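This section describes the prediction task in plain terms. A model, or a person checking by hand, is given the sequence of a single protein chain and must write out its three-dimensional structure as a string of tokens. No templates, partner chains or ligands are provided. The sample shown here is typical of the held-out split.
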Amino acid sequence: MAKKKATGAGQHRRPAGKRYGPKVTSGQKVAVGSVLVTQKGNTFGVGRNVKKSRNFTLYAMTEGVVKFGKRLGKKIVSVIS
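The expected answer:
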């Protein structure tokens, strides 16, 4: 007989991801303060009407439509009002 009770599938689970990445799509309408991208480091740059927080999260400063693009070879996110 086993000395310890088996714990089943709870023992060898994979850790949950941090859920980084874009939270909106290009062409989607957003409100002021909406989170556009969560990222670790500076993957997406700041475009028009977008601010970056301390943890590199990008959020909208105005109401408008999201546009993903490139500037000087770097990915950027803008909000067009």
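For orientation: The mean pLDDT is 91.
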